[in-house]
Design goal:
The protein has 347 residues and is an alpha+beta fold. It is built from ten helices and 18 strands. The strands form two sheets. It has a nine-stranded antiparallel sheet with strand order 1-7-8-9-2-3-15-14-13, covered by helices on one side. Strands 4-5-6-12-11-18-17-16-10 form a nine-stranded antiparallel sheet, with helices on both faces. Helix 9 runs antiparallel to helix 10.
Length: 347
């Protein structure tokens, strides 16, 4: 029996035992990547690697659900793909609803995947990194667009569907080399001279500073450690006070952003959820190991975020008050953060 057939049968057995088991969780139980499990299905179609063309064509699908996740959080946003552009290193989807930063060099594979559920078939386009980890998924929400979906699949279908998939083992390396030997004074000086929030990553890279290490260095000056309950409190306050926020979640290959109010905050076991009509967030609170309030100087004034990390210092999610370039931070967001500062200081 081939490895693929054996894996397929093992997955089938798992599904019989637990019909609601998601593919990601099944892959974890079977010790393989999600992609390796996905390609055991006969119904999937591999697409070519014309990432700019493929993302541009998704605009033709109309109203969809965009999903980006990491090990601790799932970010789901409904809307349409518009204002799509790519340069060599970064792709952008800029719409009030679907707002993405895409790193095409980190995407390895794409598939058209029909997903069967109790309501029928959901048609999706799914992107994976070179390690077989899901980078981004797009689900058709309008059945009138099935023909457009089929046309997209036919246009971007990889000619050789039997082409071997070589999933890299391990996990994606860090974006840049880091060191513990940091010139603290120089780092803090450069931090104080930031002009834009987008300058923060180049700052870390310049000083070879791992992000949470930099936050520790800046504690008391630009950062404050708070309790891990701060995220639930922040979402609750934002809901009660109708403060629009921005929610950034990265899979490593794609950053997905929600901007707007959050309304329906629900806890279910270890999961903290936002369950709104156009935006869902599903966060494993037990995965939060560190939480920081972070200030970054900009030409528009101080911009404040709540940043949460897992036990391996991976960023789970980052939260800002809703804002546009050229505009100062919302006073209502600053008032909310002020409450977090006083209520959630670790003992």
């Amino acid at each position: 029996m081939s490895t693929s057939q054996s894996l397929k049968e093992s997955w089938q057995k798992l599904k019989e035992e637990n019909p609601r088991l998601r593919i990601k969780n099944a892959a974890e139980q079977l010790g393989v990547s999600e992609l390796e499990l996905l390609v055991t299905q006969d119904s999937v179609t591999r697409l070519n690697s014309d990432w700019p063309g493929l993302f541009a064509a998704i605009e033709n699908l109309g109203y969809v659900m965009a999903l980006t996740r990491n090990d601790a959080v799932v970010h789901e946003r409904k809307g349409e793909y518009h204002n799509i552009s790519f340069n060599k290193h970064v792709g952008l989807v800029l719409d009030p609803d679907i707002d993405l930063r895409i790193f095409p060099g980190r995407i390895g594979y794409a598939f058209a995947v029909p997903v069967q559920n109790a309501r029928g078939t959901m048609y999706s386009i799914q992107f994976f990194d070179q390690y077989g980890v899901a980078a981004h998924k797009i689900y058709l929400m309008n059945n009138e667009k099935v023909d457009a979906y089929n046309e997209l699949v036919e246009q971007f279908k990889l000619e050789n569907q039997s082409e071997e998939i070589s999933v890299k083992k391990g996990s994606a390396p860090a974006s840049f080399e880091t060191t513990d030997e940091i010139d603290i004074e120089a780092l803090l000086q450069d931090w104080s001279e930031l002009k834009d929030t987008h300058d923060f990553f180049p700052l870390l890279k310049k000083h070879k500073a791992e992000r949470t290490h930099a936050l520790e260095i800046a504690e008391g000056k630009f950062t404050q450690r708070v309790e891990n309950a701060a995220t639930e409190r922040m979402l609750t306050l934002a809901s009660e006070s109708e403060v629009p926020i921005m929610v950034f979640v990265s899979s490593g290959a794609v950053i997905q952003i929600h901007t707007g109010e959050v309304k329906n905050i629900k806890r279910m076991d270890n999961w903290l959820n936002v369950l709104d009509p156009e935006f869902n967030l599903h966060l494993r609170e037990d995965k939060i190991a560190k939480s920081w309030i972070v200030e970054k100087p900009t030409e528009d004034g101080i911009v404040t975020s709540l940043e949460i990390f897992d036990s391996e210092n991976n960023n789970i999610a980052t939260f800002f008050g809703a804002r546009k370039p050229g505009k100062p931070e919302l006073e209502s967001w600053r008032e909310l953060i002020s409450k977090l500062r006083t209520e959630n200081v670790p003992a």
